[in-house]
Amino acid sequence: MTHFDISSNLIQGEIPPDIGSILPNLQALNMSRNALHGQLPQHLLRGCISLISLILSNNNFDGNFPAESNLTSLSYLFLDNNSFSGKISRGLLKGSALEMLDLGRNSFSGQIPDWIGNFPNLISVVLSKNHLEGVIPTGFCKLGKLQLLDLSSNKLLDLNDNKFWGTIPPWIGSLTSLRVLLLRGNELHGSIPFDLCRLRSIRMMDLSHNNFSGSIPPCLNNLTFGAQDGIFLTTAGSGFSILFLSTYLYESQIFVDTFVIELQSGPSIKGEKVDFTTKWRFESYEGKVLPIMSGMDLSWNNLTGSIPPELGDLIEIHSINLSSNHLTGSIPETFSNLKAIESLDLSHNMLIGLIPPRMIELNLAVFTVAYNDLSGKLPERKAQFATFEESSFEGNPLLCGLPLNRCCSPARAALKTPPANSDNEEKESWEVSFLWSFVGSFGVAFLGIVAFLHFNSYY
């Protein structure tokens, strides 16, 4: 027997200790979504030397990461959603064929090992929701084929958060095949590096719930966010293929089943998840979702400055979340170019001026600008804008019109977006005032000295 799949059967107990001698030719083992427990038996790790895919997700396995094994051909390893603990050792990963690694939703601790970068074929690394800490290892810069990197957590105050600190390393821009970058809910700080603008293949990027500061790089408009053709994840071979039987849910999170590994002439044996955040709505999609889903989440940081109008060039992006920062200035008129946008959250900032009227042309399902300093009349209630409730606009005392319970008086409705050069004009006005006051003071002092010398000449 080469393929053994007993997933989703509520089977209890432990893996038979002699499984390696019973199934010595095993290539694919899927025991996911059961109630199995205990540690991984040594016979499995030493006897099944032909094993290519090992999927033990969603069980109750525990103990330390295995110290050693003979799994030199292992390409797909999924141990997610168990109770494994301790440091991540290399014992189970003797070969160099590894393509997908998911250790998420466990209790691993310590730092991410640098040796993960020694697997040149890795296309997916998921280490989210553990007790990991420290910096992102430099060894990752060698993962030229990496398409998915998830180091995030999903519950900001949960003890299972990863606590990666420091800044995003500059070598991140070398991961040119990266499609998904999830660093949510850590302690990363500093500015958002311009190196991210080199990730031309990126589709989903989540930097939310960190301590990033400074301005939003205008060069993020260089990212395609799904404008490229081609499938999402591909593997090097080994008789496996990747399907995209996916689902994502709007609400507090989007859950995306990223891929299903399928053996040629065999059953589907794995479904993986990627979490991505938007707000409010609950929708469910099935089918090839990730190739068309794209989004950027920079919320809950300390970003300042204005929103770059260049972001309006992201015509293929589906979700943008810039909420809960300290952004100033007006909403860029270029946002009316975001023809694919479905969710846009600009709430809890310090934005001013009008909501661009042309935004009613967008096919938005979710839109909120609540708790800013916006002013003037709300856009006409047409198309999707007719569906947005008061909560989308609350916390802006100078906004008026439906659905707010504030009528637009001539004075309130006439409020306009401040000119783009208002800051410069204010600066110039201050400089002129200072110059005139300086000239006036100098003139008074000069006349005083002349008068003093004149009267002293009589003595």
- Sheet of most strands: 13 strands, parallel
Strand order of the largest sheet: 1-3-5-7-9-11-13-15-17-23-25-27-29
Radius of gyration: 29 Å
Low-confidence stretches: 154-161, 229-272, 279-289, 419-436
Shape: elongated
Number of distinct helices:
4
Mean pLDDT: 78
End-to-end Cα distance, whole Å, is: 122 Å
Strand content: 15-25%
**Total beta strand runs:** 31
Structural class: alpha/beta
- The percent range for helix content is 10-25%
Features:
alpha/beta, 13-stranded parallel sheet, 4 helices, 31 strands
Write the layout of secondary structure elements.
Elements lengths: L2 E3 L6 E2 L5 H4 L5 E3 L4 E4 L3 H6 L5 E3 L4 E5 L11 E3 L4 E4 L13 E3 L4 E5 L12 E3 L4 E4 L13 E3 L12 E4 L13 E3 L4 E5 L12 E3 L4 E4 L25 E4 L10 E4 L2 E4 L9 E4 L18 E3 L4 E5 L12 E3 L4 E3 L14 E3 L6 E2 L12 E3 L4 E5 L20 E3 L9 H4 L8 H35 L3
Parallel strand pairs: 1-3, 2-4, 3-5, 4-6, 5-7, 6-8, 7-9, 8-10, 9-11, 10-12, 11-13, 12-14, 13-15, 14-16, 15-17, 16-18, 17-23, 18-24, 23-25, 24-26, 25-27, 27-29, 28-30, 30-31
Antiparallel strand pairs: 19-21, 20-22
